[in-house]
Amino acid sequence: MTKVEAIKKVLEDNGGIATWEIIYNEIEKYYPEAKRSREWSAGIRSVLYREIKNNKNFKKIDEGTFSLANYDETKLVLSPEDLITTKDVITAIRIGQSQFRKKLIALLKKCPITGINDIRILTASHIKPWTQATNHERLDVSNGFLFSPTFDRLFDRGLISFSNDKSLLVSNTFSEKNLARLNLKSNQVIVDLPIIGREEYLEYHRTKIFLR
Length: 212
Description:
Blueprint: H1 3-13, E1 17-19, H2 20-26, H3 40-53, E2 58-62, E3 65-68, H4 80-86, H5 89-108, E4 123-126, H6 135-139, E5 144-147, H7 149-156, E6 160-162, E7 168-170, H8 176-181, H9 199-209
Antiparallel strand pairs: 1-3, 2-3, 4-5, 6-7
């Protein structure tokens, strides 16, 4: 099986669309040699971008998210009315994410890692990504955390996750030096992390998004 065929299989397994992290985590099921070179991730990216440039097999949906070429992007929109008013799928997604953020701020109020509560800089992080979620899951406050920008990025990119006992999980791809610069330690308990009701979503994140 080629890399192109392997990527297609990963996308098919995930409903025709997936983030980089899902592709990275699952490609070895179909292409066991995928990670044997030092620059393996660059190799996967080059295959994807080459296919997109040549209008074959794949398309880019948003930053870090790709789909099969025939994927129906309207699946990403909460309701047809969003498309009618915006004429743009990504803008329609942003409208839905804004609703989600307002609900999450009202409930959680601060970043559990830094304690920052200035809503101007807090980011609503989906645990199960928008692209993989049902409409219910997209607006479910149990499918989210409020994070300061740095930790939102780390969580979104699968560089950190959390166990159900609130312990911080750190990807092997993230250096100990950079972790220390953030004043954090692997397995550190994040006391204020809201876990109850989020266990299923976190299982998805640990399995699909967290870079092992």
